[in-house]
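Two proteins, back to back. First:
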Amino acid sequence: MKTSDFYYDLPQELIAQHPVEPRDASRLMVMNRTSGALEHRHFRDVIDYLNPGDCLIVNDSRVLPARIFGVKEGGKSLNEFLLLTQKEQKVWECLTKPGKRAKVGTRFTFGEGLMTGEVIDVLEDGNRIVRFACDDEFFSVLDRIGQMPLPPYITEKLADKERYQTVYSRELGSAAAPTAGLHFTNELLDKIRAKGVKIGYVTLHVGLGTFRPVKVDDVNHHVMHSEHYCLPQETADLINETHANGRRVISVGTTSCRTLESCPVIDGKIQAADGWTQIFIYPGYQFKVIDGLITNFHLPESTLIMLVSAFAGFDHVMSAYKTAVDEKYRFFSFGDAMLIV
């Protein structure tokens, strides 16, 4: 398939700039995976489509306030650093701009002296390796001086950092939120549990590559970025028990989906795993684990809309996106949601 096959025209005004309140008041498009039939609800109604014995699998990764601004030693202008991957204790791979100021050996001061950093290497792709130093615990300082790394299509400032975190986030490490989970409130999760639906946790630390466009014409030639994931034994047992009882495993988000589909399945049973994944899911992929998917509306020509098309069918998904535009759904990270079952 061609990357251009996944293009759709999106009016700028439909790109959500802020989250709705409360979280579960966002709209929900429900798609029948077999027929492509659509219903229009609100996210709080998702409970109506869940059955006792089903399980939801959520990504508990927590977003780092990974955007920090530093002043070059002896200078005045600000440099922006986006922390991408931790290499060692206080050593990070960073996206830096302007890059010409961040040569090897250059030192920067952050947060009026709360933290310093020295560029110790420049990678082939232009990213920098930076060694940071601070008196207090690193992540505590980062929480004080850092900003949320909102996607480039969100231009409004976020007043409350927690609105770019899921209510169940706990494992620090993401450069972006697993946004399908942003719609859940603790109250809605309690109601879902009370209905007899189990909730299992995986961790996939979302990387900056989630925003990178597909630059090849033929999707078969695209190479995915690598992200760290963990499927604990407790969640693997829950998934296997759910399937053994003839119930459904519903993935909350493409990150949870990619985690589950990256894990080994032996004799029909998923195995606990911890590692790095570059799995690229696009039409033609045969799903091994998930039976349903909760997801947001994704960018045209992105790997995420390709994954959704692989699960629900290319024609169904592209038709649903046209309907979403016509019905003025809100798109992307702070936008509305789809449930595909």
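And the second protein:
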Amino acid sequence: MTVALWILDGLFCGTLIWLAIQTLISTDLFKSVVMFIILGLLLALIWARLEAPDIALAEAAIGAGLTGALLLTAVAATSQPKHSESEEDPQ
């Protein structure tokens, strides 16, 4: 393995750890979900680098794609203010 590949692997590892920490400590739910999606895509890239394309595709499709979409939907549903008919202005 060349020095450039060692540097690339170290960069992947550092970025993965940094993204995981940022995902956990973020107070904004939307930012946390976006960081989770980026984390899943980076993890898929790492699996591809480790020559495991089946796991990389599964991680990208399920880990980042499907789970990310479900989490974004949940954040959107919980952050919208609810208005009942009795609170609306009768004009």
